[in-house]
Amino acid sequence: MVRAQPRPLACLVVGWLVVIVAGCGSTSVSPGNRDADLSGEGGADASSVLPDTGPDAALPPDASVAVDTEDDAGPPADALGAADGGPVAPDAGGVDLGQTPATVVVLPDTQYYSSSFPDIFAAQTRWIVAQKSARNIAAALHVGDLVDLNTDNAQWTVANSSMRALDGLVPYVLVPGNHDTDATRVGSIDNYFSPTTMPWIAGTMGAGQIENSYALVDIGPQKWLVLGLEFGPRDAVLIWADGVLKANWTLPAIIVTHAYLYADAHRYDYAVYGASQAYYPQFYNFTPKEGSNDGEQIWQKLIVANPNVRLVFCGHYGVARLTSLRADGSRVHQMLSDYQWADSLGGSGYLRLLEFDYGKKEIRVQTYSPYLDQFMSDDANQFTLSLDL
Fold first, then answer.
1. Any domain includes 9
2. Pick from 151, 61, 73, 68: which is nearest to 115 by CA?
3. Which helix (H) or strand (E) holds 127?
4. Domain count of the chain?
5. Which residue of 1, 125, 321, 327 has the fewest CB atoms within a 10 Å radius of its CB?
6. Residues of the domain holding 256
7. Per-residue pLDDT tens over the stretch 11-44
């Protein structure tokens, strides 16, 4: 998410018209970024006009865009595979479907908690530890912007204290957001989260650097690959990530990165939408000679060719979701959750709970604040997705 250098958030009216949902049920989308319409409800007929607000404006969570393109009648699990005859996507062979559902927690941007509300950040991870057994919590994933100011050691101390409460109890994967580094991609994150102190991390792109890492996590009876990528990942990062995914092609995979899906439920795509998608990764001019890939570029260069990628989680700006089909018929659920600008408390501690139910072949998503002890029950924040393995 961005505080400095705001740009006006232009009204988005494109040739492929979009319907906005403000917590009032699911709607179909005919996106212009080459996704199939999975809604089963026909094409959209309305244009989308986003609120003209900066990232720090108070925007209630149910005013964000949530698009549900889920279709329960999708392709059977045994039909999934690489279109070019490559390795077949993983299946659930050997998985005990009768086991208790497992939960994955997704922590949205915490930058304002680190800067101003440390008790809220602490309440989030303290709750995760307390609920580990009751909810069968398998992992916690942080979508980036751990801090508001990368050079402020006091903020990093807060982030470190809160996240380290999970050490030895719940494995976690975290990625840097635009606030966690500078334009040269140098920051303090490795001083506080060195992979050498995180034994559940199976590998990193750079020695001693957590910015691009992966872990092998048991989510209930199924082992998953969780791949964390830096903000606007460089070209070399996508090449590295492709190698990790192909080396672990038998495992279903989750990608975590900071900026991927935009608040209009389209992937960030500068080539198509330009500056009408506010705070697009290229806006920050990070390492231009090494590349800075937006959501659509990550989709085309990395996800399309790797059928084991099933989920993508991101933060940065807004609340939305999108389900996309590859050419081989396999689906990818992509979710954006960022509540930092929703209220005067920087988001009031809301986080995402994803319950993986292999028996019912579904993922039940809830949004909960341990700080307030409250759920968000609108369609943008509580929904069910298919679990195709």
1. no
2. 151
3. helix 118-130
4. 1
5. 327
6. 61-386
7. 333 333 333 333 333 323 323 334 433 422 232 2
